[in-house]
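YM 10:42: Glycosyltransferase family 92 protein sequence, as discussed on the call
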Amino acid sequence: MLCAGKKSYFAAAVCIITVTSMLAVSYLQLQRLPHQPKVIQEGRRCRGKIANSTITALKGNKTFIISPYFDDRESKVTRLIGIVHHEDVEQLYCWFCCQPNGKIYVSKAKIDVHSDRFGFPYGAADIVCLEPENCDPTHVSVHQSLHGNTDQLPRFEIKNRKAETFSVDFTVCISTMFGNYNNVLQFIQSMEMYKILGVQKVVIYKNNCSHLMEKVLKFYVEEGTVEIIPWPINLHLRVSSEWQFMQDGTHIGYYGQITALNDCIYRNMERSKFVVLNDADEIILPLKHPDWKAMMNSLQEQNPGTGVFLFENHIFPETVSSGMFNISSWNNVPGINILQHVYREPDRKDVLNPTKMIVDPRKVIQTSVHSVLRAYGKSANVPMDVALIYHCRKALQRDLPRESLIRDTTLWRYNSSLIKNVNKVLSQTILRAQN
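YM 10:58: structure's back
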């Protein structure tokens, strides 16, 4: 016995504490050691086919890899954004191939399934692996075992390896475009409003859309505003167009929207000062400032140390029209004319309005749709007299009489520039095809 011969209560207490401490240290060492990269092969060239799809299924273990990103905010790790089955995936390993010495390191992954699964069996996950200390790997493979042949594993390029100077101030992340999306007019209006407000890049995770919408996307891609990320998630999982699991046999909600949002944050972490998380039918309208840059400068000055800014969503029902801005050349374009919808629903008693976000991506670890799950620093709710989200869609409070709605013409401050810019896009896309 380690404590034999000690008869006093004090000595017994010391003894118990000592043993407990030793066991705790041993346990922590056991927990840490499997995560430390270790060499399993030497003198090999990096092989294996480089993955070029947005979503890559790993063989037989209910794991899908989107993309790995270098993350040194706490320690030197590779963080893979992925989708996993929350119960069936328990163990994964990162295989790093270090050139030119040809050493292959294996690091046990920490699998962190995001808490916002909304009941679905599959959810967004961070697959985090410590990197070798004396190697800056450019690619990583993922396997369910310490043993295997790297030649048979897909290799993923590790992004964000080099810090970059911000190329843009604002990037909007739209996820996901699905359901043969055809709200063409409102999409163009949103895009042009984003540009008026200071956006330089819009990233769209596209599952599918109409043929007409494809023409519009092609225009914005060629213009340099839009980046399309193919999102064929329905080839891998049974997707739901609902946000909550309905016991209907589907695997993941809203076409994997949360995974796409997290990928978009990391994808733009080194190239965009701010990332805006909202849908294509939502516009953050500043009330006190002319654009987002002036608004964010003011908000950051008032909220030092804050990396997440939450904006209240307000519904402008598409069924209630003002009768203004009935522009004849727009009438044959499918979709909603937002300039005609300036009546918003009042707040509901005891119901909090959902929010969308403008974030500093370098301060975000994990995000959900309406708030971040993990971040460095603080979050701030932006007062409604500073900005609100204009959201033109189906009414939530369908039985409200028109006189109960609030007339809010903030959008009309931009009508002259918006009409001119929308007409320019239509003349080069939709109207040109019709003539």
